[in-house]
Amino acid sequence: MNPGSTRKNIKIGLGVGIVLKHDQKTGKITRGVVKRILTNSSSHPHGIKVQLEDGSVGRVKEIYSGE
């Protein structure tokens, strides 16, 4: 299970890499900063869904702790 699939690991203002809906087939990562956490459950097998500050919505695949 990747760290992005557990809600407690995701905080507003955290730097993350997400996969957008239309990029799911390729797995292309989009980097950004979390603005809102959209998944209410404590975990999700494909990653917690978030909205980035630029408005992009996707599931967290990577967490960048140094940002």
Task: Explain what you see.
This protein has one domain (3-64): SH3 type barrels (Roll). Helices cover 0% and strands 39% of the residues. It has no helices and 4 strands. It has strands at 15-20, 30-37, 49-52, 57-64. A 4-stranded antiparallel β-barrel has the order 1-2-3-4. It is globular and about 25 Å long. It comes from Methanolobus sediminis.
Task: Count the E strands.
Answer: 4
List low-confidence stretches.
none
CATH class: Mainly Beta
Helix-strand pattern: EEEE
Question: The CATH topology, please?
Answer: SH3 type barrels
Total discrete domains: 1
Structural class: mainly beta
Mean of all residue-level pLDDT scores:
93
Query: What would you call the shape?
Result: globular
Just name the CATH architecture. Roll
Oligomer category: single chain
Helix content: under 10%
Q: What is the count of helical runs?
A: 0
Question: Radius of gyration in whole Å, from Cα?
Answer: 10 Å
> Which range does the strand content fall in?
35-45%
Largest sheet: 4 strands, antiparallel, barrel
**In which order are the strands of the major sheet placed?**
1-2-3-4
Distance between the termini: 22 Å
InterPro entries: DUF2196 (IPR019240)
Organism: Methanolobus sediminis
Pfam family, one: DUF2196
Protein name: YwbE family protein
